[in-house]
Design a protein that fits this description.
Blueprint: H1 18-22, E1 34-43, H2 47-58, E2 63-66, E3 82-83, H3 91-98, H4 100-123, E4 135-138, H5 142-149, H6 151-159, E5 164-167, H7 169-175, E6 184-187, E7 191-192, H8 195-208, E8 212-214, E9 219-223, E10 226-229, E11 232-241, E12 259-268, H9 273-279, E13 285-288, E14 295-298, E15 304-311, H10 320-331, E16 340-350, E17 357-361, E18 364-368, H11 374-389, H12 394-400, H13 410-429
Parallel strand pairs: 1-2, 1-11, 2-8, 4-13, 11-18
Antiparallel strand pairs: 3-7, 4-6, 5-6, 9-10, 10-11, 12-15, 12-16, 13-14, 14-15, 17-18
């Protein structure tokens, strides 16, 4: 059975996405051929791997990065482009297990991750269409809106997070071109960007600082101190696993606490500025409160970029545009006359509590499970890993101590069990 790396895409070729079509010059690094040595070998050319490599190089470390396809080929070049805030789940979700003080630290690390992305974009002059207009979470049910009403005060008082405000139903209808939402939360720290351009910019910054990047160099074996590809070998004192949803059973120990799922995105034809702003007046990024959520934003050329729908097997559905269109028209039926220029799928990794996984053994460092918060948290994960390899384990110890249990069912049955559970939650969204 083909893995996620090969089930839906041509090796070495970016998905046929609006991002790939508008990214400009794409990366072009050689294949690894022969045996080489490095202090650190990073596997994976997405945000986590690139950030690890870049931060290590800035600390003076000799780094090799291996990518099975192209820089930004995976979820880092296909996602919704939303720069999030904090962790994927609010601190009240994990506070009972770690205590208030630690929950507050973990949440603010996620906020620093948001700032880290902005800092990297500016420091390395990455042209990635950053729009700093906030983030709007939309309540799909009245009960969700009731939960939202006091949430900004709780976050400000108990966790020092003061950028949130509640949005009443009437204002939601003014901000968005729909009346289906019952309220919302607006966070001024949110932003959106062109995710593939951001990944390519990290790659250029890493190369400029001496990182040796090899593309189309799929790893076939990982053992302590040694990484083998189809045509070469890297001997390294440290190995960083940064493959997220595309690990494909390469290192089973690294995948016990994550499950891979597919998500889908489409870009409409250009709508014109007036029609686009009638959908999202102030141009924030938007996400709703469904378990299988919808997320959307505008592009600089006035398209609606819509993410919606999931699948839990390796294969993408045969008609991605139809799947995404159905979710879009539930919110914006006025777009029934609008076509898509591009529609694509990608694979991400989630954990049960939606907290990322940081684990280390035999100088093999594994970071994954970004659960939809990859732009900022995978970028921060790379910095945390680089700092830990360099001797500062403070943030690493905090994140690696978080309770992220393995998925039940073992390697054979956990995917069907998770698929059944996710399907149930998707049904509950419609009740």
């Amino acid at each position: 059975m083909p893995g996620y790396l090969t089930a839906n895409d041509r090796p070495g070729i970016h998905a046929d996405s609006w991002y790939a079509a508008t990214a400009g010059p794409l990366s072009d690094h050689p294949r690894l051929c022969g045996d080489i040595q490095a202090e650190v070998c990073v596997i994976g050319g997405g945000y986590a791997g690139l950030s690890t490599a870049l931060h290590l190089a800035e600390l003076g470390t000799d780094v090799v990065l291996l990518e099975a396809n192209r820089i930004g080929w995976g979820a880092s070049g296909r996602n919704g482009g939303q720069l999030g805030i904090g962790q994927r789940k609010g601190p009240e979700e994990y506070e009972p297990k770690v205590g208030k003080a630690k929950a507050r630290e973990i949440w603010h690390l996620g906020n620093r991750a948001n700032q880290l992305v902005r800092d990297l974009i500016r420091a390395h002059q990455i042209e990635c269409e950053l729009v700093e207009n906030g983030y709007l979470e939309a309540a799909i049910k009245p009960s969700h809106a009731r939960e939202y009403r006091d949430y900004p005060d709780i976050m400000a008082t108990e966790y020092g997070h003061e950028s949130l405000r509640f949005v009443a139903r009437e204002e939601m209808a003014e901000m968005l071109g729909t009346d289906v939402y019952h309220g919302g939360l607006f966070d001024s720290l949110g932003a959106h960007l062109h995710p593939l351009k951001y990944a390519l910019g990290l790659g250029r910054a890493a190369t400029a600082r001496g990182v040796r990047i090899f593309e189309q160099s799929r790893v076939t074996s990982v053992t302590p101190g040694r990484v083998e590809t189809e045509q070469g070998v890297v001997q390294a004192n440290h190995i960083v696993l940064a493959m997220n949803g595309y690990i494909d059973g390469l290192v089973p120990r690294a995948a016990q606490r994550t499950i891979s799922i597919n998500n889908f995105v489409a870009a409409t034809e250009p709508l014109g500025e007036e029609r686009a702003r009638s959908l999202i007046r102030d141009n924030p990024s938007v996400c709703d409160s469904k378990f299988v959520l919808n997320y959307y934003r505008l592009t600089p050329d006035h398209r609606l970029l819509w993410g919606g729908g999931e699948s839990y097997g390796r294969r993408f559905p045969s008609d991605i545009p139809a799947l995404v269109r159905r979710t879009m028209l539930e919110i914006f039926p006025q777009l029934s006359d609008v076509g898509f220029s591009h529609a694509w799928g990608g694979t991400l990794a989630i954990t049960a509590p939606r907290i990322p996984v940081f684990r280390e053994w035999d100088r093999i460092w594994s970071i994954s499970g970004w659960s939809g918060s990859g732009i900022h948290m995978a970028t921060m994960g790379g910095k945390i890993t680089a700092d830990a390899i360099n001797g500062d384990r403070t943030a690493w110890e905090m994140m690696s101590s978080l309770p992220v249990p393995p998925f039940p069912g073992g390697s054979w049955f956990r995917a069907p069990l998770v698929a059944a559970a996710m399907t149930w939650y998707g049904i509950r969204d419609r009740l």
